[in-house]
TrEMBL record:
Residue ranges, compositional bias (Basic and acidic residues): 173-188
Protein name: Auxin efflux carrier
Keyword match Membrane: yes
A Pfam family: Mem_trans
Domain of life: Eukaryota
Keyword entries, A-Z: Membrane, Transmembrane, Transmembrane helix
Record's subcellular location: Membrane
Region spans: Disordered: 173-218
Transmembrane annotation, as ranges: 72-94, 255-279, 299-321, 341-366, 378-399, 411-434
One BP term from GO: transmembrane transport
Keyword Manganese attached: no
InterPro entries: Mem_transp_PIN-like (IPR004776)
Topology relative to the membrane: Multi-pass membrane protein
Length: 444
């Protein structure tokens, strides 16, 4: 028994250390001038808006069937429940102990994507999940199933992070940065960046009165007529949408505005994956072998999977780049932000001690005393770990898009780095979840 616990602990420790090494690769990339601050923001945006939706489309679509759809309902309920409870706890602690406002989203939103995915891959490599896999189940299927469980949880976490996170990060409304509204105006006027660039090119071309100007590196690849037409159509659609929105009652405007906050790329990816998984004809052409009707599997599905697999590692590397930037400012004597020790201890305790104790006990009770959960030990293990782990890496992206000042951004980056240095403490939660799942199996 003791040797099994030691083996599990060492396997979990190796998984956590692999994440720290991935962060260090981001530091090396920044120190070697391979990634700049601007390029890091673009990589982070690409991860959230392209790679994560692709990952959700593939994993949710491949694992979701009409026969297995019901097993995801408890995950959705559990994800919403623990996130809401975490928000309430964060707001209470910030108000009672006068902590920085970014402590609230740090407590509310844990890492639901890159850390669990890398952790599952590493646990698969060490073989410590084999005790939860039945003889009739293959290891690859069980690992893919675990990833799909974590990704459904990630969909909820991402939606709540970008919908409610800005309000939590700002604290009281009067503390919200004034420039946030100013920075959002161009996006409302011209929803497409390429269209905006094209419109500028048209204006410059008109002012020059030289239609025979030779092409150069800044010349638009689109014809001026096409640019004008697309820009006019976008503006007309925006005006019609605004007019329709203004005609609605105030309560309807408030409801639509709140619901619109939950419409983001990861949610769209998850919905697409769910549709593909639940429609038998689509599931067949996307995920069956070519001989069995999977005509899209070898090229379209594979390409989606390839870009989706980029998400976990790249998102962790971004944190390493942020750490490097903070270290550089410290060496130069510039303001690099602070991470108060009281906030660090509080967040670490909540994320790595309190929530593991609650989730392991609660899910074990559901698995053994009720019929709420499907009889899948991998599902129990995943649900026990869902509320566990350091704060979400998206906290750094949230500070960027929310208009936080550089001091707060550096504080968040430093805090995230320290949190991931302490991330090997998740080993105790992994071992506890593993043993609790094994105990639940023996009671079945």
């Amino acid at each position: 028994m003791s040797s099994g616990i030691v083996t599990s602990f060492l396997g979990a420790l190796q998984a956590s250390l692999s994440i720290l090494l991935t962060i260090s690769y981001g530091v090396i990339a920044a120190q070697s001038k391979l990634l700049s601050e601007a390029s890091t923001k673009e990589v982070s945006k690409t991860c959230v808006r392209l790679f994560l939706p692709a990952l959700l489309i593939h994993n949710v679509g491949s694992q979701l069937h009409l026969e297995t759809a019901l097993r995801y309902i408890p995950i959705l309920i559990w994800s919403i429940l623990y996130n809401i409870l975490s928000m309430g706890l964060g707001l209470l602690l910030v108000r009672l102990f006068k902590m920085p406002h970014w402590v609230t989203p740090a407590i509310a939103f844990n890492n639901t994507t890159s850390l669990p995915l890398l952790l599952v891959q590493s646990l698969d490599a060490t073989g410590i999940l084999s005790s939860l896999i039945s003889s009739s189940d293959s290891t690859s299927d069980a690992i893919q199933r675990a990833k799909s469980y974590f990704l459904v949880n990630a969909m909820i976490g991402n939606s709540l992070t970008f919908a409610i996170g800005p309000a939590l990060l700002n604290g009281h409304e009067e503390d919200a940065p004034d420039r946030q509204a100013d920075e959002s105006k161009p996006d409302n006027d011209v929803p497409n960046g390429a269209a905006a660039d094209g419109a500028n090119d048209v204006e410059q071309a008109g002012n020059s009165n030289d239609e025979e100007e030779r092409p150069h590196e800044e010349t638009s690849l689109l014809l001026n007529r096409v640019i004008r037409a697309s820009d006019h159509a976008a503006q007309a659609a925006s005006r019609r949408k605004s007019e329709f929105f203004r005609r609605l009652p105030n309560w309807a405007q408030s409801v639509l505005s709140f619901m619109y906050q939950f419409v983001n790329a990861p949610v769209i990816g998850a919905v697409i994956g769910a549709v593909i998984g639940l429609v038998p004809a689509l599931h067949r052409v996307f995920f069956n072998s070519t001989q069995n009707g999977g005509y899209l599997n070898a090229w379209l599905t594979t390409s989606i999977k390839n870009i989706g697999d980029l998400f976990a590692a790249l998102q962790v590397i971004v944190v390493g780049v942020k750490l490097s930037q903070s270290m550089s400012k410290m060496r130069k004597g510039e303001e690099s932000g602070t991470a108060p020790w009281a906030s660090m201890v509080t967040i670490t305790f909540v994320r790595l001690v309190l929530w593991p104790a609650i989730s392991i006990s609660f899910i074990y009770m559901l698995a053994t005393k009720t019929r709420t959960l499907d009889k899948d030990p991998i599902l129990w293990f995943a649900m026990m770990l869902m509320p566990t782990g350091p704060p979400a890496l998206k906290l750094a992206a949230l500070a960027d898009v929310n208009g936080s000042d550089e001091k707060e951004k550096m504080s968040v980056a430093k805090f995230l780095t320290i949190s991931y240095i302490l991330s090997p403490l998740i080993c105790f939660a992994v071992v506890g979840s593993l043993r609790a799942s094994e105990a639940a199996m023996s009671n079945m």
